[in-house]
Design brief:
By secondary structure, the chain is mainly alpha-helical. The chain has one domain. It contains three helices and no strands. Helix 1 packs antiparallel against helix 2 and helix 2 packs antiparallel against helix 3. It is elongated. The N and C termini lie far apart (72 Å).
Length: 155
């Protein structure tokens, strides 16, 4: 019975974790950024010199990523249970279980690094960028992304 429960837990955790990554990366992110860049959405506290659509999209998708960390933790716990039962119950431990446990450990280390270090750094850098952008003037509307005035052709 424990083996069946562990097997179910492993596949449920893997599908939750990796399926969630694929769905937010392939479906949610492009959808959020498409809507925010093609509509006139504004947010208080964002300077006109920044690309408003991308800033709003980043704010929304950042919140999605912050909430997804809980899904990653739940998926990792299910994966650990699915790997842990065979790891404890089989003697000698099969090489495939040892490899899966090593990959799970690497996954958890990366999860801890991104959630504990990278996410706070990104949010801090966003605040620094927004604070420094408040002092910059807004670009003229006739300039393209390279800063060339329409009709001059650049260098």
């Amino acid at each position: 019975m424990w083996k069946r429960l562990a097997h179910l837990s492993f596949w449920l955790g893997a599908s939750l974790y990796f399926g969630g990554l694929v769905s937010i990366g392939a479906i949610a992110a492009p959808g959020v950024f498409h809507v925010t860049t093609h509509t006139a959405i504004t947010m208080p506290g964002i300077a006109p010199s920044l690309n408003m659509g991308n800033q709003v999209g980043g704010e929304i998708f950042g919140e999605v990523l912050n909430r997804f960390v809980w899904i990653e933790v739940i998926g990792s716990a299910l994966l650990l249970f699915g790997i842990g039962v065979p790891l404890v119950s089989h003697r000698p431990v099969r090489r495939s279980i040892s490899i899966l446990f090593s990959l799970w450990l690497a996954l958890v280390v990366l999860l801890g690094y991104t959630a504990g270090y990278l996410h706070p750094q990104v949010w801090h850098m966003r605040e620094v960028l927004r604070a420094s952008a408040m002092t910059q003037p807004a670009p003229p509307p006739e300039c393209d992304s390279a800063g060339d005035v329409a009709g001059e052709g650049g260098v």
